């Protein structure tokens, strides 16, 4: 590691300390000392990087840095969503975070690797915007409970307005120093992982549309004017739009979709009326709303279904692409490589402290009954681990742990590597262990396992499984390996 890299790693940790698993304890200490401030919305506490330092901190990324800075534009200028993609560990995250450090602009960073469901992702973003950190004091609870997209939009708007006002009020100054602009950028890392946990396939299109959805108040007036054109009963239609335009605009701003969705709903709205030229106000308007209410949600759902249909088709295509590759695994991946994939998955998913309880001396799953008998203490341990696992997401592990799990699950006579006679099996075992590093390296290249930076304390490289539970279960099924028995469940 060269001299430029070392400070970079330290500084990145400072900015992201509240999201990285290892920093939970130090984060707790920090809360007691200092509440979060607006200054925590910019990268770290150190001085911003100069452009030259930025370029030299990321060799080979000059063009990408230049392009990113260009796309982000001058301070406080509107920016369309930017999608950054590229091979694993090619510096996407580092480049983006370092660019923000250089620009010294406020941002919120959430990784879909550590936030592995919609609720965690939404709450993580809101926590940062509301300068809220989970801690012992607040019982590790989030600032807001939020699971649904519609709730998230409302809470996000509220939080953004608050932050932007504060940023403006601070005129870029805070106790920790200055920062540029009064705009907050939302950065989503490892977005591709959303496909693994969002079975409804609505989160990705939603996130890509978030930029538009948040602009709703600006465009609502324009949409209203367009929709009002040629309406025979403008007062009635205007009253109707008062009730429905806002919730509909959260789902789509496309005129064709809006007109198609609003038209049948307007008919329902008119049903109880004898006189269509009426201007419903007060009690009358409330009565009409009550009649309309049961029809609003289904109509919005229908629009949502239509707007996400095309994305779903794309997703399905991608998914079928993925299942093709799963089928390919059936044919092209060796038995030992499959076991390695499963071992890595278990190492990432299960807390290391529970390894002993999952594997007995013969490599089989440990006796579950024995585990259940073990009293209050193990219950507490389980709860603590559950919390820990929840905070961490898929964990990293050293090579030794991977090999230990691999050995355990392959040495059990119940699940032999191949159906061979004993002598051949021994030979196979030897050659397996000798080329295992090669196989791990191949799995890293194929992106089944990702290789993280080395831990400065341990000095050894750490790995992480990148596959979803679905894929792990499919690989396990092909080996007739009972993966579920080895998985730590909440
Ligand atoms: N061009 C580069 N210069 C210096 N360090 C780099 C460069 N590219 C990657 N790295 C280092 O490699 C490691 C992985 O980088 P990073 O996490 O930014 O990659 P990524 O593309 O975001 O990875 P992933 O695909 O897993 O999301 C980091 O330690 C980072 O500092």
TrEMBL record:
Family: Belongs to the ORC5 family.
Entry keyword annotation includes ATP-binding: yes
GO-annotated biological processes: DNA replication initiation
Pfam families found in the cross-reference section: AAA_16 (PF13191), ORC5_C (PF14630), ORC5_lid (PF21639)
GO cellular component: nuclear origin of replication recognition complex
Domain ORC5 lid: 237-280
UniProt name for this protein: Orc1-like AAA ATPase domain-containing protein
Domain Origin recognition complex subunit 5 C-terminal: 333-487
PANTHER family: ORIGIN RECOGNITION COMPLEX SUBUNIT 5 (PTHR12705)
Localization annotation: Nucleus
Stretch list, region Disordered: 357-382
Keyword RNA-binding: no
GO molecular function: DNA replication origin binding
Main location: nucleus
Orc1-like AAA ATPase domain segment(s): 58-211
InterPro entries reported for this sequence: AAA_16 (IPR041664), ORC5 (IPR020796), ORC5_C (IPR047088), ORC5_lid (IPR048866), P-loop_NTPase (IPR027417)
Keywords: ATP-binding, DNA replication, Nucleotide-binding, Nucleus
């Amino acid at each position: 590691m060269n001299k430029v890299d070392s400070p970079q790693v330290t500084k990145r940790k400072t900015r992201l300390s509240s999201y990285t698993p290892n920093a939970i304890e130090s984060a707790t200490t920090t809360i007691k000392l200092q509440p979060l401030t607006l200054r925590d919305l910019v990268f770290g506490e150190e001085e911003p990087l100069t452009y030259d330092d930025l370029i030299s901190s990321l060799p080979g990324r000059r063009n990408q840095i230049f392009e990113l800075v260009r796309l982000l534009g001058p301070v406080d200028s509107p920016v369309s969503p930017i999608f950054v993609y590229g091979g694993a560990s090619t510096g996407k995250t580092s480049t983006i975070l370092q660019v923000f450090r250089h620009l010294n602009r406020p941002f919120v960073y959430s990784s879909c690797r550590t936030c592995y469901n919609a609720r965690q992702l939404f709450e993580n973003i809101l926590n940062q915007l509301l300068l809220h950190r989970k801690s012992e004091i607040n019982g590790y609870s989030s600032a807001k409970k939020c699971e649904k997209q519609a709730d998230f939009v409302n809470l996000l708007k509220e939080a953004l307005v608050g932050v932007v006002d504060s940023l403006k009020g601070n005129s870029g100054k805070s106790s920790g120093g200055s920062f540029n602009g009064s705009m907050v950028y939302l950065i989503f890392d490892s977005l591709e992982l959303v496909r693994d946990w969002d079975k409804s396939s609505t989160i990705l299109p939603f996130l890509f549309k978030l930029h538009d959805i948040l602009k709703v108040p600006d465009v609502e007036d324009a949409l209203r004017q367009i929709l009002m054109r040629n309406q025979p009963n403008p007062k009635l239609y205007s009253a109707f739009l008062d009730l429905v335009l806002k919730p509909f605009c959260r789902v789509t701003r496309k005129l064709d979709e809006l007109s198609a969705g609003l038209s049948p709903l307007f008919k329902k709205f008119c049903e109880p009326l004898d006189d269509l030229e009426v201007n419903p106000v007060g009690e009358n308007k409330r009565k009409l709303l009550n009649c309309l209410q049961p029809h609003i949600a289904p109509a919005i759902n229908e629009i949502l279904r239509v707007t996400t249909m095309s994305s779903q088709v794309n997703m399905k295509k991608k998914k079928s692409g993925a299942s093709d590759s799963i089928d390919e695994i059936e044919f092209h991946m060796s038995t030992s490589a499959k076991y390695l994939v499963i071992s890595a998955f278990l190492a990432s998913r299960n807390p290391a402290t529970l390894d002993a309880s999952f594997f007995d001396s013969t490599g089989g799953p440990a006796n579950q009954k024995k585990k259940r008998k073990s009293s209050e203490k193990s219950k507490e341990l389980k709860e603590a681990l559950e919390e820990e696992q929840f905070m961490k997401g898929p964990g990293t592990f050293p090579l030794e742990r991977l090999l230990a799990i691999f050995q355990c699950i392959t040495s059990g006579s119940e699940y032999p590597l191949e159906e061979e006679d004993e002598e051949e099996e021994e030979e196979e075992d030897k050659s397996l262990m000798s080329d295992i590093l090669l196989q791990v390296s191949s799995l890293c290249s194929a992106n089944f396992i990702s290789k993280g930076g080395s831990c400065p304390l341990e000095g050894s490289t750490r790995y992480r499984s990148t596959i979803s539970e679905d894929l792990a279960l499919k690989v396990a099924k092909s080996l007739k390996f009972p993966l579920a028995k080895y998985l730590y469940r909440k």
